[in-house]
Amino acid sequence: MKKLKLGGNNILLAITVVLFVIMYLGGCIIYADKGFTHFQTFLNVLINNAGLIAVAAGMTCVMLTGGIDISVGSLIAMDCMFLAVGMETWGMKSPVLMIMVLIIGVVFGLVQGFCVAYLEIQPFIVTMAGMFFARGMTAVICKDQVSIVSDQLFTAISNAKINIPFGGYENKKGIYQVPFIRPTVVVALLVVVLVYLMLKYTKFGRSIYAVGGNQVSATLMGLNVRKTKLLTYTLSSFLTSIGGICYCLNTMCGTTTQATGLEMDAISSAVIGGTLLTGGVGNVLGSLVGVLINGTISTLVKTNGKLVSSWANIITAILLCFFILLQAVFAKIKESKKA
Amino acid sequence: MDKLKKITKMKLFLPIFSMILVMMINVIYDIASGNPPLSFFTISINNGILYGRLIDVLNRGSEVAILAIGMTLVVSASAGTDISVGSVMSLSGGLCCMLLAGYGVTNVSEYNVPLWVGMLAGIAIACVCGLFNGFLVAYMNIQPMVATLILWSAGRAIGLLLCNSNIVYVRVPSFQFFGGYCGIIPTPIIIAAVCVAIASVVLRVTALGTYIQSVGINKKASRISGFNSAKIILLCYVICGLCAGISGLVATCRIYSADTNNIGLNMELDAILAVALGGNSLGGGKFNLAGSIIGAYTIQAITTTLYALGVSSAQAPVFKAIVVILIVVIQSQPVKDYFKKLSAKKAAAKEAVQA
């Protein structure tokens, strides 16, 4: 049997999982009378964050190469606006639009990836320009808020429920409530599983780790570092577009201010989930737990009812700060051990 | 040909060139729309205050110019940018108005505390933010952009919290003075000029500028030669926070209210763009403050021109983002190498013809 090594990175992941369990159980105890204990509450966290899960999976890949992608929030807003305007104003069919959104994502990622990989510009600058570009494009496409009402297929997917055979409960009126998830959750979880398998078993996935670990040695090993980076940024934007469709299915509208600060959530999810900012170490499953922690924080703030929603932002930022500091401390310990 | 090369190699070529380009566009636009061709440059005195598009650019560009001072130093010392400046602006404005009006009050015509207390508190909190960023970057070795990402998200949220998620109005003339007019000249122009003057004097008289550049060029070497690199980087971030605080207060006084959601929105892009336009490399090292300041006013001229052309404020980021990418692409090493190769090839071909 393989022994589970408890290195610094596993400790980070373990801390994350423990933190999530404590937070959720704490919520269950404090807000027991407000229905926090129901299985559906947990499923709602998944439903509300389906888009974010897909985005965080892409973000993890980018961060594994040692880069970062802060354009994701704005890209989602652009996707949503495109979908909404496409259906309502241009009268296009939703499947066509969805494919177009995915293509937009790939092109967007290719441009960013090219600037990062082949022109050697700092990822942060490139994706920040991308962020403002996409945010501005939402206003170029349409300045008003557009809500989707007429497209039947899209509304049907949005309202579809997938029932889960266990974990039901009776509500106050004595009616049995069957817990359910939306199709978006299935898509998001599928993305996580596929990315996990890709990172673990494919050549591309392994080269992502190698590039992030040490770019020079990856080059010496004969890996095409630039191509790997280009493909990683493309993958991130592609997954973000999938996330954008999920997000749009949740909100059913496109606005210019949609998904502001989502990049922050995605990055903090990945960092909380044990992905190192310096690259090379990390795991998609950790990021999933990170998203769940973020979702639980906002659910706790909402359940409290008295707190302003900006508290969720502040708590996430504090958590992110805490985990970044933890990473820095671990890195320092590692260095001193080497010396 | 050689003269042209000399001109393009000058330090301030890029910012001045782009400034002239923007002005040319304005002149062409004025001619096309039937206005007198030089209406961009005309300055007149209406109702006892200076009036004109050029004054407008100088006035509105004050915030970016002040931010550009701090951002230049941060970029030079740490090879990274401080993306929290916009949020810090809104935080300092929020705290100032909250103190002046009292917590939970949204509209006052009398100060709750003296004006200087509110102003000082706003600047102090901005400095604390800078200290926090600087600590993470200098002592914990965290990438600058990730470290400042924390306050980028939290700063605005804390500002909202301080203002109880409301817009706080302070309708007192002495508060409005700082965003209004001092005699015939807009006060923000004077504030920006004073900030720039102080910064350039300090950088010129003391050795601070040299220290910052040497840390940016090689952190380890400058530490070995006896500088405290970490302290210098920390200082740069504190100065950047200070600048963000001052410009936040200017932005708040301008609209005599703390609109926490909108003050300093997208300002970090403008500040970074100003630094890049000023001919500074975003990879750190040598810096040129004059370039950044000219860059800042160029950005404002671009913004004003975009508005004049009928582009809305929500759409403007598209064009600015394109400009950023173009500048960074021109500055990037592979493109530079490519052009060098191209000119070398041309020279070789010339020689071959002559031989």
Strand and helix layout:
The complex is a heterodimer of chains A (339) and B (355).
Chain A: H1 8-30, H2 39-48, H3 50-64, H4 72-88, H5 94-117, H6 123-141, E1 146-147, H7 152-159, E2 162-163, E3 169-170, E4 176-177, E5 180-181, H8 183-201, H9 203-213, H10 215-220, H11 225-251, E6 253-254, H12 262-272, H13 284-304, H14 310-338
Antiparallel strand pairs in A: 1-6, 2-5, 3-4
Chain B: H1 2-9, H2 13-32, E1 44-46, E2 49-51, H3 53-60, H4 62-78, H5 85-101, E3 107-108, H6 115-139, H7 144-162, E4 168-170, H8 173-176, E5 181-182, E6 185-186, H9 187-205, H10 208-217, H11 219-224, H12 229-254, E7 257-258, H13 267-277, H14 289-308, H15 316-331, H16 333-354
Explain briefly what this protein structure is.
The complex is a heterodimer of chains A (339) and B (355). Chain A has 339 residues and is mainly α. Chain A is 71% helix and 4% strand.
